[in-house]
Amino acid sequence: MRPVSYEPIEGSRGVFEGTGTEESPRGVGEMAERARAAARALAPMPLQMRDAALEAIAVTLIVQQEVLLAANAVDLALADAMVATGELSAANRARLGLTAAKLAEMAAQVRAVGELPDPLGRRLDAIELDRGLDLEKRSVPLGVLAVIFEARPDAVTQISALALKSGNAVVLKPGREVERTAAALVELIREAVRSVGVPAEAVSVLFGREAVAELLTLSSLVDLVIPRGSRALVEHIQATTRIPVLGHADGICHIYVDREVEQELALAVIDDAKTDYPAVCNAAETVLVHEAVAGDFLPALVTRLGVKGVTLLGDSGVRDRLPRALAEQVGEVQDWHTEYGDLTLALRVVASLDAAIEHIHRFGSAHTESICTSDPAAAERFLQEVDAASVMVNASTRFADGFRYGLGAEVGVSTSRIHARGPVGLEGLTTTKYLLRGHGHVAGDYRGPGARAFTHRRG
Amino acid sequence: MRPVSYEPIEGSRGVFEGTGTEESPRGVGEMAERARAAARALAPMPLQMRDAALEAIAVTLIVQQEVLLAANAVDLALADAMVATGELSAANRARLGLTAAKLAEMAAQVRAVGELPDPLGRRLDAIELDRGLDLEKRSVPLGVLAVIFEARPDAVTQISALALKSGNAVVLKPGREVERTAAALVELIREAVRSVGVPAEAVSVLFGREAVAELLTLSSLVDLVIPRGSRALVEHIQATTRIPVLGHADGICHIYVDREVEQELALAVIDDAKTDYPAVCNAAETVLVHEAVAGDFLPALVTRLGVKGVTLLGDSGVRDRLPRALAEQVGEVQDWHTEYGDLTLALRVVASLDAAIEHIHRFGSAHTESICTSDPAAAERFLQEVDAASVMVNASTRFADGFRYGLGAEVGVSTSRIHARGPVGLEGLTTTKYLLRGHGHVAGDYRGPGARAFTHRRG
Question: What is the ipTM of this complex?
Answer without folding.
Answer: 0.90
